[in-house]
Amino acid sequence: MPTYLAWVGLKFQRSLVGFLKTARSNMNTLIGLGTSSAFLYSVFITLFPETSIELGLTMKVYFEAVGFIISFVYLGQFFEEKAKRKTTEAMNSLFKLSSKNATILKDGDMIEIPIENVSIHNILRVRPGEKFPVDGIITKGSSAIDEAMISGEPIPIVKSENDLVFAGTVNGDSVIDYKATKVGADTFLSQIITFVEQAQGSKPEIQKYADKISSYFTPAVIVAALLTFIVWFYFGPEPIWGNAISNLIAVLVIACPCALGLATPTAVVVSTGRASLKGLLIGGGEVIEKAVDVDTIIFDKTGTITEGKPSVIECLINDKEVLREVAGIEQFSEHPLSKAIVKYALEAGHELNEPDSFEVIKGKGLKAEINGNDYIIGNEKLLIENEILLSEALISKTIGSIVYVAKNNIHIGTIMIGDKIKASSKETIQGFKEKGIATWMITGDNEIVAKSVADELGIEHFVANALPLEKSDYVEKLQKEGRIVAMVGDGVNDAPALAKANLSLAMGTGTDVAINASDVTIVKGDLSKALDFLNLSKGTMKIIKQNLFLSVIYNVLLIPVAAGVLVLFGGPMMPPVLASVAMGMSSISVVSNSLRIRKLI
């Protein structure tokens, strides 16, 4: 036990010494005071039993109480410290997005070098499916590039000569040569990494309620204990030393804040456990506290409000055989729009045949022959180039990516592909509005799509064409207006805003970077869980405050009893053993109250 107190409980003893030097105290000071007093008292009566009996001391040791108090406080602090590991995890996830090597062209040869050796103006080659190692400008080739990391949008962007490309984005189906314009810490990905690291590091530590209470409570306990000793020593009955010391120890033991130490972490454990069963992973007690004062919530669009993947939202093809043939052609393309059409046809129960011929027209669409019919499938530019007139009856008013279908040089169908809004989005956003929380949507998508989604869901404010760091700028702007901002997102492009927000929630269906940069992970990507978390956090904070009240009121009511005030009314003194029992009862009341959190959601 001496080793346990001196080694495991060293921080509490140091806090007690610090209090003696500076008069500044917190919960650790109270723990150090109570455990040290109980331990020294127990050691004395163990080593000097005869002297203890002569003094009239209560022959009860408190070694088990010392271990109990220190162990339970550490258990609570363990749960509170878990969230601090997430910053490192977020950084590791971001670093995984970057390439370790790059292929440069030199004197007609391809040479693979470490990414840190790439210099500005080097010509680099990126094969299909590879990541761009640094930022640059395309000098040769054309390809559909997946820039979801930047914009969050799932549909690749076709880029060719003189277009910019960024580190961490993924090349599509063609070889690209490009000139490096930014390397090392200057790349767009490195700027995101730096920003997230600084934003997470700058989040202030929230002062614990228990420490704040203890800063006032510790001096009061010491004064009460000393007064107890003085009163019993000068005015109490025999044995003077025994009564004075026993009551002094009783006051210190009953004041030891075991329940105070459990008040917050016990509620947090119950809350996070309940949340996990409901599809929410919460970082800890500080995260729960952050949600209480939120008055503004910002949503990313793609993957947060919407499904985050291309889907057929309107099909203006009346002939089932045509749809089957179109899907049969599209199954040989890797383009996300093609995959959406194939999925739509398969879900409709069509069996797909293979085309007799197949040709990809870069950035425009496809040409193919199937069952003796010639098909041209793609954008408006492709049909115009082939002198095919668009039918007015087949022009869709739905907002999305348009795929025109021409059979034997006649426009016979139009397929609209977009990102479907999640079923829970509208009701959830309405729920936030009913709570008086202002709703925003900030997306990398274009103005037309953003306005359409915002109008459909009743979102009050929206921003379109926003880059990752611009999303963060909007968060900061709202914070400077005095708002407490929550951010909900799912992609790498959301990471800076998630890190900057007062409270951040990431979809579990999103990237590791977004998840690690957030306070809360919504496991299955159900947006309604964000509203559940708000309700849970407010209820949990209410119960934590009740726990703190129960902890303090127990001590306030029982300290006079431990000091022997009942003797004035003909009652008994409280021996230290009963003080220990009372301390345990206060802990039980806190745990029992915390279990009510399970009914919040």
Question: Can you put this structure into words, describing what you see?
Answer:
With 601 residues, this protein is α+β, with helices and mostly antiparallel strands. It has four domains: 210 residues, no CATH class; 81 residues, Calcium-transporting ATPase, cytoplasmic transduction domain A (Distorted Sandwich), CATH 2.70.150.10; 142 residues, Rossmann fold (3-Layer(aba) Sandwich); 108 residues, Calcium-transporting ATPase, cytoplasmic domain N (3-Layer(aba) Sandwich). It is 50% helix and 17% strand. It has 23 helices and 21 strands. The strands form five sheets. It has a seven-stranded mixed beta sheet with strand order 9-21-20-19-10-17-18, with helices on both faces. Strands 11-16-15-14-13-12 form a six-stranded antiparallel beta sheet. A four-stranded antiparallel beta sheet has the order 3-8-4-7, with no helix packed on it. The protein is elongated. It starts with a helix and ends in a 7-residue tail after the last helix. 46% of the residues are buried.
In short:
By secondary structure, the protein is of the alpha+beta class. Helix content is 50%, strand content 17%.
Beta fraction of the residues? 15-25%
- How would you sum up the major sheet? 7 strands, mixed
- What is the 3D shape? elongated
Number of strands: 21
Count of alpha/pi helices: 23
Assembly state (oligomeric): single chain
Terminal-residue CA separation: 43 Å
Cα-atom Rg, whole angstroms? 34 Å
Uncertain residue segments:
199-207
Task: Domain count, please report it.
Answer: 4
What is the overall pLDDT average?
80
Category from helices, strands and their pairing: alpha+beta
In percent, how helical is the residue content?
40-55%
Which strand order does the major sheet show?
Answer: 9-21-20-19-10-17-18
